[in-house]
Specification:
four-stranded antiparallel beta sheet; 2 domains; binds S-adenosylmethionine; seven-stranded mixed beta sheet; 243 residues; alpha/beta
Length: 243
């Protein structure tokens, strides 16, 4: 089932207020560098990074399967210089070959099965130039982030233009092997509440290394955090740069 946090226009409109630019944004902008490049932002969501990359002179394609997110992206100031495509990672089919393919904001964790991961990695690799690289991150399962997905730890209230005040929190509901089920709970006031169920996979580093090799990636660098520190057992992220 598609995640309504992304497909529903009103819920997608809340995304940017909940997810302001952070150290990950700086990492991806640095990865792109200052030389103009062809960049695919896969799972671009509301398009903030895609538009900023384009503003810096890169030739950017932003792709996402969720209509709600794409509507926000297309409406963003500066959006007209980005090529927007409504597509998921496995079925994207464009003639451009990219220097860089980015998947940011833990997009990778929406691929729930080995088959889904393989299909996405294979198809994204097909879209790379000969020396192109894919860059993405997945949360390190050893850190067990989901244990903090409670109302007490995640509750926030944001102000969203055209919508007003929205109270949001996350509730982890079940852990089923590597799959973590959770709900995003939106309260728009006056009894107007929406519950958006989601599920994410927390893949192990060794497994991911094998899947990258299987998909044809031969050069893989790993980082554990946005400051380029090495991936250690306790690092918050598994950040992959692969070609
Ligand atoms: C947490 S958001 C991240 C958005 C954006 N990259 C960011 O960093 O803010 C996850 C995004 O993945 C997208 N998504 C869901 N399934 C996908 C798939 N199969 N392929 C590519 N993107 C997908 C969602 O629509 C959503 O926009």
């Amino acid at each position: 089932m598609p995640d309504i946090s992304y497909s529903d226009p009103r819920l997608a409109a809340v995304y940017d207020a909940l997810n302001p630019a952070g150290a990950d944004t700086a990492f991806y902008l640095d990865m792109a560098g200052s030389e103009p490049k062809f960049v695919l932002d896969m799972g671009c969501g509301t398009g903030a990074l895609a538009v900023e990359l384009a503003r810096r002179g890169h030739k950017v394609t932003g792709a996402d399967p969720a209509a709600g997110m794409m509507a926000v992206a297309r409406g963003r100031a500066g959006a007209d210089v980005v090529d927007w495509i409504e597509s998921d990672a496995a079925s994207l089919d464009v003639p451009t070959r990219f220097d860089l393919v980015f998947m940011t904001g833990h997009v990778f964790q929406v691929f729930l099965t080995d088959e889904a991961i393989a299909a996405a990695l294979r198809n994204l690799r097909r879209h790379l130039k000969h020396n192109g690289r894919i860059v993405f991150e997945t949360r390190n399962p050893a850190v067990r982030d989901w244990e903090g997905w409670t109302q007490a730890d995640t509750a926030s209230t944001v102000e969203v233009a055209g919508i007003g005040r929205v109270a949001v929190h996350y509730d982890m509901t079940a852990v089923d092997g590597q799959l973590v089920r959770y709900e995003t709970r939106f309260d728009f006031g006056g009894g107007d509440k929406v519950v958006a169920p989601g599920v994410l996979r927390f893949v192990e580093r060794d497994q991911l290394a094998a899947m990258l090799a299987q998909a044809g990636f031969t050069r893989v660098e790993w980082y554990g955090d946005w400051n380029l520190s090495p991936a250690l057992p306790t690092s918050p992220e598994l950040i992959v740069v692969a070609g």
